TrEMBL record, chain A:
Protein name (database record): ATP synthase gamma chain
Major location category of this protein: membrane
GO terms of biological process kind: proton motive force-driven plasma membrane ATP synthesis
GO cellular component terms attached to this protein's record: plasma membrane; proton-transporting ATP synthase complex; thylakoid
Family note: Belongs to the ATPase gamma chain family.
Record GO terms (molecular function): ATP binding; proton-transporting ATP synthase activity, rotational mechanism
NCBIfam families, sorted: ATPsyn_F1gamma (TIGR01146), PRK05621.1-4 (NF004146)
Organism the protein comes from: Roseibium aquae
Lineage summary: Bacteria, Pseudomonadati, Pseudomonadota, Alphaproteobacteria, Hyphomicrobiales
Protein function: Produces ATP from ADP in the presence of a proton gradient across the membrane. The gamma chain is believed to be important in regulating ATPase activity and the flow of protons through the CF(0) complex.
Automatic annotation (TrEMBL), chain B:
Membership in a protein family: Belongs to the ATPase epsilon chain family.
Alphabetical UniProt keywords: ATP synthesis, Cell membrane, CF(1), Coiled coil, Hydrogen ion transport, Ion transport, Membrane, Transport
Gene responsible for this protein: atpC
Cell compartment(s), UniProt: Cell membrane; Endomembrane system
Full protein name: ATP synthase epsilon chain
Major location category of this protein: membrane
SUPFAM superfamilies: Epsilon subunit of F1F0-ATP synthase N-terminal domain
Length: 294, 134
């Protein structure tokens, strides 16, 4: 049975923890709003890019001269997994969920006899992956100290991926990140970026406008110019979604931590009061029985 | 009198401009072109340069780099990797930045750092060249 002093100390320390988690929750809430705004601001660009590429890609569907970034290298032996996670922990299952998804994919690819290469963005993902798949990690990018992800960061990663692709270091590239649905729901997602997939392109539906579109330079050149850019745009979008998801996950994690701390304080306070009462009663009995003995 | 049409200038980070405008001059890869209302469906990549927008209140200029312009029945959309209003670029600041960047290139240790510094410098020079040409 802990002494009264011990209980008092524990209550004080849980209260201090509660203050910290409460503060973290509020900070995360403020950052979440900003991250969400950034994600929304980036949406028009990514959407327009997607539409235009889908239009162009529809024309190239099934043709032999389609660019490699779209058609692939014709093999799928070497897979590059780009795993984007956060730089910090204390955000619930956010980092481990992404890492788990990536690890599952890596495991199934390896069991199929494929070669796996991993590019980690963010320290936490690397920490989670290096234990099982450390030897597959070819590169890590840390965004520590970066307050808000800019397009330049994504562009650097995109360029790295492209250089590797051009050097023939992999055939298929998949991007792992967490899609932001709401504060309480973030969905770890795997998205294949090379060879590129476009909605609508598979269905062979050609937008009517594209039939009379004039291109300058011609379609092939535009497509070849846009596909590499699209990689960076996709990475950028993933990073922004991740930033919003991270703050959302941290907010709900810290909210439940604060609530837990509150419950713990209540329980400790009850046992503290009970024990104090027991001690007072015990002392009274001692005094009374002492007085009676006289 | 030219008629108004919808124009959007979008960069990955934000929507810079979405407005009804009279005329837009775009620095296309194979030459500058102007867009008025009811332009035929047209798509072109853009080169680093100055994009000019005419509203009833007068011309505004933006520096754009990397991306494409898409004219259609719905109006004109320009997607640029970088887009900065020219009014926000100051000549003296730019010269200073170029000088700093040149020093960075000279000081850079290792291939990665050097590559980065050179990229930064070439971007700045693009801006300067575009401003000079305007």
């Amino acid at each position: 049975m802990p002494s009264l002093k011990d209980l008092r100390n524990r209550i004080a320390s849980v209260k201090a923890t509660q203050k910290i988690t409460k503060a973290m929750q509020m900070v995360a809430a403020a950052k979440l709003r900003r991250a969400q705004e950034a994600a929304e601001a980036a949406r028009p660009y990514a959407e327009r890019m997607g539409e235009v590429l889908a239009n162009l890609a529809a024309e190239y569907q099934g043709r032999d001269d389609a660019p490699k970034l779209m058609a692939g290298t014709g093999k799928d032996d070497v897979h590059l997994l780009v795993v984007a996670t956060a730089e910090r922990g204390l955000c619930g299952g956010f980092n481990s969920n992404i890492a788990k998804l990536a690890k599952e994919r890596a495991r199934s690819l390896i069991s199929q006899g494929k070669t796996v290469k991993i590019l980690c963005v963010g320290k936490k993902g690397f920490d989670a992956i290096k234990r099982d798949f450390g030897k597959y990690v070819v590169k890590t990018v840390e965004l520590q100290g970066v307050k808000s992800v800019g397009f330049a960061h994504a562009d650097n990663i995109g360029r790295d991926v492209l250089t590797m692709f051009e050097n023939g270091e992999f055939d298929v590239c998949t991007l792992f990140y967490s899609e932001f649905r709401s504060v309480i729901s973030q969905i770890p997602t795997a998205q294949q970026i090379i060879p590129a997939h476009f909605d609508g392109a598979e269905k062979g539906e050609k937008a009517d406008a594209s039939a009379i579109y004039e291109y300058e330079p011609d379609e092939g050149d535009i497509l070849e110019d846009l596909l590499p850019r699209n990689i960076s745009v996709q990475v950028f979008r993933a990073l922004l979604e991740n930033a919003a998801s991270e703050q959302g996950a941290r907010m709900s994690a810290m909210d439940s931590a604060t609530r837990n701390a509150g419950e713990m304080i209540d329980k400790l306070t009850i046992s503290y009061n009970r024990q104090r009462q027991a001690q007072i009663t015990k002392e009274l009995i001692e005094i009374i029985s002492g007085a009676e003995a006289l | 009198m030219a008629e108004l049409f919808k124009f959007e200038l979008v960069s990955p980070e934000r929507l810079l401009l979405s407005d009804e405008v009279l005329e837009v001059v775009v620095p296309g890869t194979s030459g500058e072109f102007g867009v008025l209302k009811n332009h035929s469906p047209f798509m072109s990549t853009i080169k680093p340069g100055i994009l000019k927008v005419r509203k009833s209140s007068g011309w505004t200029e933006y520096f754009v780099r990397g991306g494409f312009a898409d004219a259609g029945p719905g109006g004109l959309t320009v997607l640029a990797e970088r887009a900065i209003p020219v009014a926000e670029i100051k000549r003296s600041d730019l010269d200073q930045q170029i000088k700093n960047a040149e020093e960075d290139v000279a000081d850079a240790q290792g291939d990665d750092a050097k590559q980065k510094a050179e990229m930064h410098l070439s971007q700045l020079k693009d801006v300067a060249a575009a401003l000079n040409a305007a």
